Prior knowledge:
The protein is 8% helix and 34% strand. By secondary structure, the protein is mainly beta. The chain folds into two domains: 26-208, Immunoglobulin-like (Sandwich); 212-253 and 264-411, Immunoglobulin-like. The strands form seven sheets. Strands 1, 2, 4, 7, 9, 10 and 13 form a seven-stranded antiparallel beta sheet that branches. Residues 1-21 form the signal peptide. Residues 215-406 form the COBRA C-terminal domain.
Amino acid sequence: MGMILIFISFTLLNSIPPSYGYDPMDPQGNITIKWDLLQSNLGTNDLKVSIYNYQLYRHIEPPGWKLGWFWTGEEVIWSMFGAQATQQGNCSRFRGGQLPHSCEKAPEIVDLLPGTPYNLQTSNCCKGGVLTSMTQDPSKYGASFQMNVGGTTDPGNFTMPINFTLGIPGYSCPNSTQVPPSKFTSDGGRRWTQALGTWQVTCVYSQSLASPSPKCCVSLSAFYDNTIVPCPQCSCGCQGLPGSECVKFGETSSLLQQIQDPTQAPPPLVRCTRHLCPIQVHWHVKQSYKEYWRIKITVTNLNIIKNYSDWNLVVSHPNLQSVIQVFSFNYKSLDQYASFNDTAMFWGIHFYNDMLLQQGDQGNVQSEILLHKDPGLFTFREGWAFPRRIYFNGYDCVMPPPDRYPRLPNVGSTDKSSHSVIVLSFLLLLVMF
Ligand SMILES: *[C@@H]1O[C@H](CO)[C@@H](O)[C@H](O)[C@H]1NC(C)=O
Ligand SMILES: *[C@@H]1O[C@H](CO)[C@@H](O)[C@H](O)[C@H]1NC(C)=O
Ligand SMILES: *[C@@H]1O[C@H](CO)[C@@H](O)[C@H](O)[C@H]1NC(C)=O
Ligand SMILES: *[C@@H]1O[C@H](CO)[C@@H](O)[C@H](O)[C@H]1NC(C)=O
Ligand SMILES: *[C@@H]1O[C@H](CO)[C@@H](O)[C@H](O)[C@H]1NC(C)=O
Ligand SMILES: *[C@@H]1O[C@H](CO)[C@@H](O)[C@H](O)[C@H]1NC(C)=O
Ligand SMILES: *[C@@H]1O[C@H](CO)[C@@H](O)[C@H](O)[C@H]1NC(C)=O
């Protein structure tokens, strides 16, 4: 009965379509673009543009942001520091003099790479377009560049461009709104200057805009049950269907030889599995102690052309409010930001496992987590020990149906964990390959 109830509630939860631009795990999440007009003189304007990734767990990975907009007048970018326009465009109307940096009506701006010469840098620039989430590294979630803009139709009156884009799938940006001017200090707060004008654009993410098909799935096992519950078949695609190419284990693909455009993220190229997901998360209920229990999480990369740098996992499970210890991953509860207390974020340790390598022997990361058995809450019954929801890099992972979850044996569950671990690891290998 309980199992059926859980099943129904899960089915309901999973069937609620994600509402446009709203993420219940990160209701405030947004990427804000801020324009500060620093100087305006004889029709040329010095501007500072900043991008802040105000999202708890979504980050911007290589090849990075590519900021675009549309000038409404005859504006040109005379110079730029800390970033560059990808196209100079048609600057022939300036023939005979110094040419602007970009005359494009709809310029596309990319970040400079780390190690850019100092004379082209500005503060907080040159990260190759990569921005971490607010949680993962509070010092690296922002970027900025400066530019000098001329050609404004009405000298002395700067007009904001329209139609902003971030160049990353899934984000939509409204037009700018003017906000109170930013203030800057150069003397530890004893004197403040302020921008002549400040505008903001707040872009929001929507998974349905980003990608219609899932990118990740979950498999489950427990020491008390010998079966491994695999990722649901066709979670991310079905072998043999058009658009679902995969590479058999032991083979390499001719697609690998193609030259990649460094400014475009390549589409995933995955190993052939029953689920065709580039990422598989395995949740194993490993051990039961008197007052604690232990789970093991393994994240496997089945994408053969991508290393996931600064990957992260968001997990929702009621016992995450009583975490005792997390091994080999960084951990932060997301309680303080929202009205729930069962959600936490995990990510790799710098220089140890913050890079989830492309498919192969090294293509996985693992952690064990020790949790307290809260009286009145904890149980191994009815699938309680399994996660409610898992996100990898912000992608909702497909869970197995709850009626398939590992079950407690009906009689005398004793500690047979060490034996099952070996059996399970073997089975896991079988399932994956
Ligand atoms: C964007 O995120 C910031 C930081 O969390 C928040 O203060 C701001 O209200 C958000 N903006 C919108 C429009 O949601
Ligand atoms: C470049 O712009 C000039 C005017 O500014 C125009 O006359 C010319 O046709 C343009 N050239 C091209 C190739 O678009
Ligand atoms: C600047 O331009 C806007 C719209 O184009 C106009 O409403 C405003 O009056 C102008 N301001 C000045 C100081 O010219
Ligand atoms: C700006 O965006 C709107 C709505 O997305 C679109 O209709 C319009 O054509 C765009 N304008 C330009 C100049 O790109
Ligand atoms: C921005 O404003 C322009 C002109 O005012 C309009 O055509 C366009 O649709 C607006 N874009 C968005 C995304 O609202
Ligand atoms: C992933 O990282 C490994 C080790 O640093 C490197 O050898 C490999 O070329 C990288 N793969 C891709 C697709 O960048
Ligand atoms: C967590 O949230 C639930 C329901 O919102 C509440 O009943 C419980 O007391 C909370 N636990 C803690 C430790 O805050």
